[in-house]
Design goal:
By secondary structure, the chain is α/β, with parallel strands linked by helices. The protein has 8 helices and 7 strands; from the N terminus they run βαβαβαβαβαβαααβ.
Amino acid sequence: MDLGIKGRKAIVCAASKGLGKGCAMHLAREGVDLVINARTASELEATAEEIRNATGVKVTTVAIDVTTPEGRAAVLKACPEPDIVINNAGGPPPGDFREWTRDHWIKAIDANMLTPIEFIKATVDGMMKRGFGRIVNITSSSVKAPIDVLGLSNGARSGLTGFVAGIARKTIKHGVTINGLLPGPFDTDRLRGTMAARARMNNRSFEQERDMSAAAHPAGRFGTADEFGAMCAFLCSVHAGYMTGQNVLMDGGQYPGTY
């Protein structure tokens, strides 16, 4: 299927590895030129070179912390008129809420709620003026089903989801959609960190925790970044223009609810 976005320009945050990299690669396969961001320059440039070699699109790297105003300004300078914005950030660390201070909460909210909102604020008016835009916020399955050890993520990402629900219906008539993409367990560094925390809490080895979790999952496995990137690219396509304010859950059937 031709997604109809060849020649478009996209910003993809936290794209050096994991789900962000999967999204960047699939957009590039559709002919989208990229500005990709992460904090570690060496990893980011390696990913950019991999994408260039695989697809031939233009890939610009901005190694910087986008939770700061200076970081966001640098990314927007590299791509001042994006057609697509993929908001993504590594999740806050797992733990016990009793141990979290106000600083822990502010850091989580900055990265997983306020930074995406700032990128939306900086780009959505231009998208509406040009008549096309796709904003995808990578959040978490915890928005629908909170995860006990990920309280910081539960709170911050739910705040972003609530904010988007209030504006996504105002942009679609101008050709701009804003949707959430909610990953469940995918084989990423983030999942491995969560598994390690649970293993410690349950007095099990990491391998035991990983194997038990995979075996208990309806799919019998964890998702891949390639699968996730394909869904992200579809949400950015011309075929998804009638879909906004939605939260697409990708969890291999783990969520047990009907709605």
